[in-house]
Structure formats: C-alpha cells, structure tokens
C-alpha cells in the first residue's frame, strides 16, 4: 500500500474537498504570494471586479516590476467549469487578446452577461454598443446558471486566450486560495489584500503540502505592492 503522503502530496486530490466558487466568488484584490514559478515581477495582483454568482467573474490583472520599471495589465473573465465537491473544482480563465479585440467584443456582445446567474435580468458592460440583448431564459431547474455558463463557454472559446486551474484549497470568506495549473503543473497561493501581513496558516500548509519536494518562490514584495 502507498503511504498517505504519496497519495496527497504533489497531486490535485486535495482539491476534491473544495468548491471553485468559494475561491473566486468575492470581489476584491488578491496578491500572488507563493508559487512554483518565479515571474519577473515584484507584485502580481488580481482584482475581481464583478461576480456572477456560482457562474463567472470579471477580473483585472496587474504585474509590476519596480527595478525597470514595467507594468503589464490585462482584463479577462473566469468561468466555474466544474464545481462538484468531492469530484472536481475547476476554473477556466479567459484572458483578453489584444490581437483579437473584435472577436472578443463580438463574443461579449452575443453573450449579454447577466448581473446574477439566477436572475432574469441581463446586463452588458457599458463599453459595448448595440441593440439591447434578450434576457437569458431560466433552465428547467429554475436557474439560468447552466444555460448561461454553457453559452459563455461555447462563445468565448477561441476568441481569447484561456487557461484551466483546479482549486486545491480555499480559506473561509476567500481569504486565500491555492491553484493548480493543468497546462504547466504549476501551483500558486493567492492571498486577499487584507491578509498579506501573515499568510493564513491553513492556506500556507495546503500549499506546502501539495508542493512537497518542489522548488517554490516567494513572489510578493510588500513595499512595492502597497504603493500600487
């Protein structure tokens, strides 16, 4: 029989106890604290600017290097793709591609994002122009969640860059969360801006546990991040 460490460490099995929406479903700013890669930035943040309950979020990412200095920013959306506790907790991240602005604009126009995935009302970002879009009909289960999220996934695929992550751990009230990137096998620990003085203990333990014997990096320069 394999030891328990062999089963849990350096794997995504820990994430089967989590729900993806609990990680990203709160508006606010989060900082990249720990990772198995070391990006050339002093500060990397993600600002969750809008949430569509149990379905999707809008976000803005800022990456800043103080020594050059250099700032990279982009916007995107993240879709809760699989969120069944005990089975999987998967998020797909869609990053706007500047070379495909028209395609992304057309996708967003066709989609007609709603303020609440369980609501009948539909609302588009103010930056998009054109005739009013119809509301998203509710599914037979009484929720628009399934219809909207499937439509979102079908439309946006191919018009923007995307990556997929699995949530391995999230702290209560989204104080922090640990992600695993399926395309690169990298791990990241993100912390809410109010928790940067001390990484919440359980998140730190979960990250350390799943990255056992892997090289990890501290990617947060507090002095730099606090000035942004």
UniProtKB/TrEMBL annotation:
What's one GO MF term for it? amine binding
Q: Which GO terms describe its biological process?
A: symbiont-mediated perturbation of host defenses
Q: Name one Pfam family in it.
A: His_binding
**What's the protein here called?**
Putative salivary lipocalin
Q: Which InterPro entries match?
A: Calycin, Tick_his-bd
């Amino acid at each position: 029989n394999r030891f328990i460490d062999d089963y849990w460490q350096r794997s995504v099995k820990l994430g089967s106890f989590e729900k993806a929406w609990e990680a990203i479903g709160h508006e606010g700013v989060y900082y990249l604290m720990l990772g198995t890669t070391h990006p050339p930035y002093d500060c990397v943040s993600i600002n969750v600017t809008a949430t569509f309950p149990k379905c999707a979020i809008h976000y803005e990412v800022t990456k800043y290097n103080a020594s050059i200095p250099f700032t990279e920013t982009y916007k995107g959306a993240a879709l809760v793709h699989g969120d069944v506790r005990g089975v999987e907790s998967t998020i797909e991240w869609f990053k706007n591609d500047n070379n495909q602005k028209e395609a992304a604009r057309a996708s967003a126009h066709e989609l007609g994002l709603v303020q609440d995935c369980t609501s009948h009302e539909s609302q588009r970002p103010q930056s998009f122009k054109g005739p009013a879009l119809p509301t998203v009909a509710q599914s037979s289960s009484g929720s628009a969640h399934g219809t909207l999220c499937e439509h979102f996934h079908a439309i946006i695929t191919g018009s923007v860059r995307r990556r997929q992550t699995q949530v391995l751990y999230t702290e209560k009230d989204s104080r922090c969360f640990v992600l695993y990137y399926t395309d690169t096998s990298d791990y990241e620990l993100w912390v809410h801006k109010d928790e940067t003085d001390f990484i919440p203990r359980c998140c730190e333990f979960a990250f350390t546990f799943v990255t056992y014997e892997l090289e990890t990096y501290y990617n947060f320069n507090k002095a730099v991040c606090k000035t942004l």
